[in-house]
C-alpha cells in the first residue's frame, strides 16, 4: 500500500529521500518503495516520472494530536493522486487506440473549410483528379467514401477511416487552369490542377510559395491526346494543324478544298465545359473563334456516333471514344503525320498530345504532397489509364514506331531491329537540364529494366535539337543532352551502350513555334538485344545531315 504522508514533514524528518507515488503495478520502484533523492523537498521518480513523497513516520512516533493535524492534508493529497492515476489510465487507453501515422488534418475540428482543396483545370478536375483522390484516400485507409457535386464544376469527397474513425474532406473546383495559380497565391487551395505549364506571370504571382516550376512543386500526372475523326468513307488520311484550324474556324467550308468529294463540311465539337474541348482550343484554334453553326456535344460517344453516321462530318474526341469513326493522322509543320495512339501520345510526338499537371507549394501541407506523389507513382499512372488518359510507364514499342525518312543513315542502321520505349526525355529551354517529367522518367526507365528482366539488354540514347541557331552547335547540344541523360542513368547503375546526337534532324513538330521547338528538343530511348556490331562515332558536324539510304 502506498504511503500518504505529505511532503511537508516535522523538522525531525529531513526532506532528502522520497518514494514514488505511482501504482505498484505501474512502476517497479513504487512497488519496492525504494527511496529516491529529493531536492528542496520535491522530486520525480527516475523510472516513471511520478511525484515523490516522504515515507510515513512510524505509527508509534505520531501522537493523536499530530495525526489529527495531518489528516486533512493527507485526504487532499489522496484526492489529487486519484485524479492523476485516472488521467494516466485514460491517456494510456487513448494512445493504444490511436493509429501509428494518422493523416494530419489541414483544418481545425469543426471548421467549415475543406481539409484539402484542389482548384484549376476542368480537364484534370472532371475525372482524373477525383479518380486519383479516391484511390489515394483508399490507400491511406479511408475506405468509406462518398462524392457529392456542390456546384457546377465542383465536387466534395467525404471519407472516413474505419480503423480509427478519422474523417477527411476533399473539395475540387474545376473552373480553369488560371484559377489554380490564383487560388494557390490567395491561400484558397493546397493543390493546383493545370492543363498547361505555369506561365511567367503566374510564377511571379506565386513566388511566396517557392518556384512552382521547380522539381518537387510541378508534377506531370498524365498525358492527354485528342483524336480527329471523320466518316469511314472519307478518303482523307491526314491533315496539317493549319488545315484543321481552317476547317474549325470556317475558312474551309467544303471538302473539295482538301481533295475529298465536294460537300459542305459539318463540324462537331465538345461543349465548353469539356476538357477535350479545352485541349483542342489550345492546340489547334490558337485563340481563334470556333465556326458558327458547329454542333456541340456534352458526350464524346454521342459526338463520335454522329460523325460515324455522316459522310460530311468531322469532329474530335478523346482517344477511347473514336469507336466506329475514322481517325486522321496529323502533322505539325515539318513533323511527320502521326495518328493518335498510346505510343505517339506517350512520346509526345503526336501533334495533339499535351501534359496535365498538379502544382504544390514548396512547403505544401503533407497530405497535399502525398497526393501529388501518389499521382505520379506507378499506381497513380494506372489510375490515369483507367479514366482514358495516357500513363507514363515507358513501355517498349510493340513494333509500331515509325522511323522518319529524313534521318542520318547511322540512325537508321542503329534502330533497325531495336525497340523504342514509349517516352521522350525533354529539357529546359536552351540547356541540357532535364525537365521535371524527364527527371521522373529516368527512374521509370530504371524500374522497367529491373522489373521486366531487361537489364541484360542494351540501352541506346539518341538526341535531337530544334533548328534555331548554328547547325554544328545544335548537333553538339543534342550530343550533350544525350550524355546528360546517360550521366543521370549511371547514378542508377545503368550504362547505355550508345549515346549519340543528331541535331535538328527528324523534327517531330514545327520549329516556328516555341511549343514545337520544345517537342523537337528530345532524347529518344531504344532497347537493343546486343551492342552494335560497328562502334558508334560521335556524329561529326561536317557529315551530311540527312540521308534516306
From TrEMBL:
SUPFAM superfamilies the record matches: OmpA-like (SSF103088), Periplasmic binding protein-like II (SSF53850)
A GO cellular component entry from the record: membrane
Signal peptide: none
InterPro entries: OmpA-like, OmpA-like_sf, PBP_domain, Phosphate_ABC_transporter
PROSITE patterns for the chain: OMPA_2
TM ranges: 70-89
Stored Pfam families: OmpA (PF00691), PBP_like_2 (PF12849)
Record keywords: Membrane, Signal, Transmembrane, Transmembrane helix
Source organism, top-level taxon: Bacteria
Every OmpA-like domain range: 414-531
Designated name of the protein: Phosphate transport system substrate-binding protein
UniProt organism field: Sphaerotilus sulfidivorans
